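Students often ask why we bother encoding 3D structure as a string. The short answer is that it lets us treat folding as translation between two languages. Here is a chain of 320 residues written in the first language.
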Amino acid sequence: MIVRRNSIPARLWALIRLGRPLFLAGGFIFYGLGAAVAAYDGYPILLLPYLLGQTAVTAAQWMTHYCNDYFDVEVDRLNRTPTHWSGGSRVLLEGLVRPRTALIAAQVLGGVALAATGGVALMSGLLPAGLMLLAIVAAWEYSAPPLRLAASGFGELAVALTVTGLTPLAGYAAATGGLSTRVALTIIPLCFLQFAMMLTVTFPDARADTIAGKGTLVVRLGGVQAARVHNAALIVAYLVLPLLVFFGLPPFVALAMALTAPVALWQAWRVSRGAWQDPARQESVAFWGIGLLVGTGLLALAAFALLTWQPGSIPSALLL
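And here it is in the second language, the structure alphabet:
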């Protein structure tokens, strides 16, 4: 069956592509990681509060995708070197979805995130709800005025603190009502990996961002210095693991996270050799930056799950 370009199915599919649902996986991984640490600490993971929290996280993340394309449409128009991971979804530039529709989608998802956060406040307390609310505000202000963090030079740090910081902390707090040293230790390497990943997806956009006056960290530092910062973040993410074990991170979890270190060293070597500025390799650099973050987060989640749930036991996440 041939679908006409301007048909309703084509427009609906374009609206879905605009939201880049594939990128939502991170919200499930990092919120789940916080819950897994809570389960390791002996807390039951109740299904309904967990689902409410996950709804808030996913809606806020999805909101960011629509919001980012809406506020960056003119910057994306200038971008002649987009990749699958950077330069926006390109859907608004195709003309199948109006920018106003993207903004409405972002606002609706923001409303869903706020409503779910209200449910978290009622069921799990003010701390997890407060963390989620802070994450929602940061997600909106990443692209939107007045802060427009993505253009301030602080966007990469804000994303690291929100996605790999606030999200696991909220997942932990939703189950426990509080926070712990262990969950804080767990997120430290991931924050460094997220920060490095954000640089890899910004490198291809640097030329267009410079022309448009969008002051990302790569634009402000310059490509060479940003590449050095990227490599330093990767190295610190793994060098810090023994110290984290000393302060209470389970050794098995640290070992699991360290399994991706060879890939990180290879990535750092490629970036040091100029892959960040080579159009033929920029997509690969971004892909492996994302892969390092997602892979390390999944390994940490799996490690906590293996330490917590013994064969034959009922996972506490199934409790109602």
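Translate back mentally: The CA atoms of residues 45 and 317 lie 4 Å apart. Keep this in mind for the problem set.
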